[in-house]
Design a protein that fits this description.
The complex is a heterodimer of chains A (314) and B (226). Chain A is mainly α and 314 residues long. Helix content of chain A is 70%, strand content 0%. Chain A has one domain (3-312). The chains are: A mainly alpha (314), B mainly alpha (226). Chains A and B meet through helix 7 and helix 11 of A and helix 1 and helix 4 of B.
Amino acid sequence: MTINSLIIEALQIILVIGLAPAFAGWVRTLKCWFQGRSTPGIFQPYRDLRKLFSKEVVLAHNASWIFRFTPYLLFGTAVLVGGIIPIISVDLPLAATADVIVVVFIFAIARFFLALAGMDIGTAFGGMGSSREMMIASLAEPAMLMAIFTVSLVNKSTSLAEIVQVIYNTPPELNPSLAFAFVAFILILLAETGRVPVDNPATHLELTMIHEGMILEYSGRHLALIEWTSMMKLYLFTSLAIAAFAPWGIATKGSLDALPLAFGIMIAKLGVAGLIIVLIETGLAKMRLFRVPEFLGTAFLLATLGMLSFFMLD
Amino acid sequence: MEFTIDTASHVINFLAALLLLTSFAMLAQRKIYGLIHLFVWQGIFLAANTAFVGFMADKSHLFISAILTVGLKVFLLPYIFYKLIHLLDIRKEVENVVNISTLMFIGIGLVIFSYYLTSPVRELSTLMTRPTLAIALASVLIGLLMIITRKNAVTQVIGFLAMENGLFFAATSATYGMPLVVELGVALDILIAALIFGIFFFHINTTFDSLSVDQMARLKEDEPDE
């Protein structure tokens, strides 16, 4: 481990924390354009966060330590994952410590605590949100793991840094397994980050909210941390998709010179990824909760087909 | 344009995977127009695959089959179905006997089964299309599954045609296609079958006021429903 890779690691974590609100803002801006509304600009999430941080925290009398602890835990897990996924460079000290399966389960810890916190106060909406979130999680997680197994099988490693290296060292080819896994991953991304066909991030309508239901009781800096975390989650899932399916342009050597170019390419890729997400979101209506199992079942099916075609077609 | 065998088999595998995907999509599709669109896509992938195999293996009669597939399965049959659905004013939702998630799992089971079943053939065959044989058999079985699990006569016929697509694909991947005479005969059969099915639909519809095959369990017309 050199001093360079430590610097890169630190830079990347700062990048994840600092850039996630801008990416969320970019997605919202695009969505406004597609719906013909005027936009508050891509820096609006920063202003929202500043406003929330300056407000005082209002706690219910029966709030336990779980309720107070959860926002910090969520933020911590997102930062940790931000250090594992190769976003600007593969030369990350943390990437060697954990593979992509660990990433999935770090997200699962965050989700577990968020669901507990949703039920902690004892309001109806919190419990409802938690129960829905866990239902979706129980369906999304197998599909996600299946997609990841497919990618790992094709690239012969579960470590993201090595997957990126393998993709770099083999000539690009038409691989049906990866195509299936990619489409499955997009569906899972929409479900995991609470985007439109599954959950609507912009609504507080009682009957439909999932994520918003769980965090309804939060206020002030707690709410700010949770909002920030969900922006980072969107950013991280997108980066995960980029790292696993289209990592070209990332810095492969541990030198600092390659970083500016990698950074520029990353911005361009995120811009395109945001466009894809918004296109899907604008084209679809939010589906009924009981259609979600079918949606995620499709993702699972695609991932499984990807895995089967890896064995059948080689 | 020159293709190496390696690239060619990648393209063929990719088209085969898309064919399998459309089979599954047809299994999951609720709307009857959606089902027809998927059938059109399956026809397109099938024709593209046939033409590509024909090009790579230098078998000119496969081009004729590809053209036949496009004409019949991409244009003529879907057009006939559109007309029929419009004329008979069929309900647009397709009913299933089994729910869709279960169907998907049965489908995956069928894919694994056909992989297992075709593995001895894979060992023997030397053609570049040999990995796709499992997918061809799986498409046939999924078409059969569709016939079994659908309640509506029109969707059952689409399932039958999907099955025929699978058979056609199996012929291409096992032996670079059947002899041209056989293929012409099959194509003609399919066309005639579609016409006869159309006439049957009319009769079923006028007799039972519905195309749901549940109604056919009644033996007499005046017998009351259970």
